Amino acid sequence: MSSYLPAALIASLEGLPGFNRETFERVHTAAEKITSLRVNPAKLKTPEKIQQVLQALSAEGTTKVPWSRDGYYLPARPSFTFDPFFHAGAYYVQEASSMFLEHAVRATVDVSAPLKVLDLCAAPGGKSTLLQSLISPESMLVANEVIKPRAALLADNVTKWGAANVVVTNNDPRDFGGLPGYFDLVVIDAPCSGSGLFRRDPDLVTEWSPENVILCSQRQQRILADVLPALKEDGVLIYSTCSFSREEDEVILDWLADHFELENIALDIPEDWHIVPTVTDKRNCTGYRFYPDRLKGEGLFIACFRKRSGESPRKKKEQRITLLTAKERDKLTPWIQAPADYAYLLHQDDVLILPPVIAAEIALLQQQLYIRKAGVKAGQLGPKELIPDHQLAASTWAADSIPVISLSLAQALLYLRKEDPGITTPVKGWALMQYEGMNLGWAKMLPNRMNNYYPKELRILKEITGR
Ligand code: SAM
Q1: Which of 2, 20, 166, 247 is 20 to 30 A from 154 in CA distance terms?
Q2: If you compute the radius of gyration of the chain from its CA atoms, what whole number of angstroms results?
Q3: Dist CA 384 CA 414 (whole Å)
Q4: What are the residues whose beta carbons fall under 8 Å from the beta carbon of 418, sequence distance 6 or more?
Q5: What percent of the chain has pLDDT over 70?
Q6: Spatial distance between the Cα atoms of 166 and 295, rounded to a whole number of angstroms
Q7: From ligand 1's centre to the CA of 147, what distance in Å?
Q8: Is this model's pTM higher than 0.90 or not?
Q9: Which residues form the SAM-dependent MTase RsmB/NOP-type domain (predicted)?
């Protein structure tokens, strides 16, 4: 059967566990589009709320992604842009195979413990938002992305997810060398040659070549070698790619086992998930292959290791961070209902809400890394009042006493376009704009009009006719 897949790719996959040329080519030719999303358990707190959001996207119903607590398949792709729930951070549109990270984490790490987690190659944030939903509120996730504009996108998606226990950084993997033995879990969703996404996005095929596979493999080794010192002894490394190529998958596992004191961890996986285990020739490491002709998802490779030796963590220097005075904190009382042990940090004029773990670590992180976002920015502290930030609206910490304006679907879409939704209301001053009980952002209600404070860079640009 002919297909648009490069002959050199197909030839290189022959003999790999689970590879079946005929069904592999057929599923690529059929090019079925699979749509899946993961709901946000911090924002959709009841089964009824989850159903309301899913029902709005798909009247025909949804089915569960077998390896994910919060993942669902939709029968067709709706227009997420025109769904206010999407902008409210009710869910993240994520490819189903990627959600398997949840199973790998639960099998290797005690997620109820307070953890320090690094997602090294994190943009646009699919795995970071998943990790955030898995870890406890006492844990901290550092979500890092080396490419600056992609780090900005990551920060926006983390903001939308609403959690306070995330720090977004914009660093090269080697910068993490300054944090020896620091993290309990390091996830490396490595940049790769991308063959696992060819069914979903056939245009990517033009960028594929055997030479690029080798370059990717070398870069993956560099990234791993750079970041491994930051993993503590007994800490867990989860490595994944969306490439089918042996050089980026099994070869990397053997390379890791050859060069570092890492013990490979095999996972228990139900057979009816149709995920294919693969054992490396040289060092007997087990990894897992996801083929689109065997399961409902795109191509993925994933493997887990435990580190058997470790660099000692550096002694922490005394931390100097400026917390708010009691008087300044009083100005925030009408705005915030964060837990009592959360710290309020003043950074220039901005007030950041930090959970205890981030308050304790931020000075050290700041010495080593370029921090793009930490905790939740409550707003700017002016002489009289707080000017609230979008991050506070998107978080779960905005006070219940703040006036709320409930918008219809049409009004919500106008608001998200940064237009005037034409509301008549007795509310004066700052108000939270909500859709079906979920915060979209801020507006200031003036006697004859409203000022729409939805962030300009997030506004909907697409025309409804262009759905
Ligand atoms: N984990 C992300 C998610 O689930 O949404 C997807 C990550 S994507 C597969 C790989 C990321 O690695 C990209 O965002 C890319 O910009 C970044 N990257 C590219 N070169 C890199 C390098 N040399 N070191 C670290 N990350 C790199």
Answers
A1: 247
A2: 23
A3: 31
A4: 452, 454, 456, 459
A5: 98
A6: 32
A7: 8
A8: yes
A9: 25-308
